[in-house]
């Protein structure tokens, strides 16, 4: 059975689930106009300009070898490949939907073309998002 569901951003989409109890990271869609309004708003520095490398340490307290909340080990100082070469992108491992900082995702709040939307490929509970926020910013 397919249901039409309106998410917290007012976007209607088809869903085969009756109810979504999880939240998720945000993704920037191809409708992005590369205005850059979203990048400075992200408290986790999870948003990067297309083709730019990213690091786990950017905008966080992470440094050196760390074990992420998903169990994988990474070097927080090491440059990572860009997720997109053409438009701004959000690193799912760093996105917390602004949980622990704001009441709503700030990228979506400032986007003039509403292209910052939930990423169905990265579903996490609110508790998981808050744990990720505390992991990246233990001093907050």
Short description:
The protein is of the alpha+beta class. It has 2 helices and 8 strands; from the N terminus they run βββββββαβα. The protein is globular.
Provide mean pLDDT, rounded.
87
Report the CATH architecture: 2-Layer Sandwich
User: Which fold name corresponds to the CATH topology?
Assistant: Alpha-Beta Plaits
* Domains, number: 1
Structural class: alpha+beta
CATH class: Alpha Beta
Please report the distance between the alpha carbons of the first and last residues.
43 Å
Biggest sheet details = 2 strands, antiparallel
Shape: globular
Instruction: Provide a count of the helices.
Output: 2
Q: What is the C-alpha radius of gyration, as a whole number of Å?
A: 15 Å
Q: Return residue spans where pLDDT drops below 50 for at least 5 consecutive residues.
A: 1-21
- Oligomeric state, counting identical vs distinct chains: single chain
Order of helices and strands: EEEEEEEHEH
Strand coverage percent = 15-25%
Give me the count of strands.
8
Spatial strand arrangement across the major sheet: 1-2
SSE blueprint and pairings:
Layout (H helix, E strand, L loop, with lengths): L2 E4 L5 E4 L7 E6 L18 E2 L16 E3 L5 E3 L13 E2 L15 H5 L5 E9 L1 H11 L4
Antiparallel strand pairs: 1-2, 3-8, 4-7, 5-6
Characterise the protein shown here.
This protein is α+β, with helices and mostly antiparallel strands and 140 residues long. It is built from two helices and eight strands; from the N terminus they run βββββββαβα.
